[in-house]
Design a protein that fits this description.
- By secondary structure, the chain is α+β, with helices and mostly antiparallel strands.
- It contains four helices and ten strands, in the order αβαβββββββββαα.
- The strands form two sheets. Strands 1, 2, 3, 4, 5 and 6 form a six-stranded antiparallel sheet that branches.
Length: 220
């Protein structure tokens, strides 16, 4: 069989055309386009609504409101006995309900009795939600050199935030004198606790305050 070189040239040309980057493409660009996957939609989470802060417990006008009720007086007597006081007497004329915007929320009860050491002592107590917070005053602590005569005045001085300031005046005597002691009390409405405000009491005493109105002017 005779080999014809022209068939070899024709076959080589066909091979070149088959491998050419232009073969089978209209643009001559051999890089295939890569499709970019669509981004998944991001879920939007709505922010949770903010809860408004609770109104302070002491919002509203705090005032004396009628006489202390019989249950509050009985609970105070029990609390005084728990403080080892004997011969306890409640001063009804200086024991009142406490209201906020006309709604009664607690009672303040004052009285006198014999302290554990035998000294005649005075006290004040807050009765709130069935719980009693009782504070001995004349005859104990800063006032241990004096003996109690009786409570003579009680009233609301001011309120700020949770704390209500209450003024109390107690008749007291010592071997040398008879005096009226102004004592400022702090009542926490959130806890029901009653305590003596030593700084406020000192201011009222130095000002010579012997009435609730005079105490109010001295400590504000």
């Amino acid at each position: 069989m005779t080999f014809d070189p022209k068939w070899l040239l024709l076959g080589a040309a066909s091979l070149v055309l088959a491998c050419s980057p232009e073969a089978g493409t209209a643009s001559g660009n051999s890089t295939a386009a890569v499709a970019t996957p669509a981004a998944e939609p991001t879920e939007t989470v709505a922010p949770e609504p903010m809860t408004p802060p609770a109104a302070p417990a002491s919002a509203g006008k705090v005032a004396l409101s009628g006489s202390a009720d019989a249950e509050a007086i009985a609970q105070t007597k029990t609390a005084a006995a728990g403080e080892q006081m004997t011969k306890v007497q409640i001063t009804s004329a200086q024991s009142f309900g406490l209201s906020v915007d006309g709604e009664r929320v607690a009672s303040i009860v004052t009285g006198e009795g014999s302290l554990a050491n035998g000294t005649p002592g005075c006290f004040a107590a807050i009765v709130q939600d069935g719980k009693v917070s009782l504070v001995p005053t004349i005859g104990q602590g800063e006032y241990e050199a004096e003996s109690c005569d009786k409570p003579t005045a009680i009233g609301v001085l001011s309120s700020s935030g949770d704390v209500v300031r209450i003024g109390a005046v107690f008749g007291a005597f010592s071997p040398n004198a008879t005096v009226s002691e102004p004592i400022v009390l702090n009542w926490s409405r959130s806890t029901g606790a009653l305590s003596i405000d030593a700084a406020g009491s000192s201011k009222a005493s130095q000002a010579g305050a012997q009435t609730i109105a005079a105490m109010r002017s001295a400590v504000q």
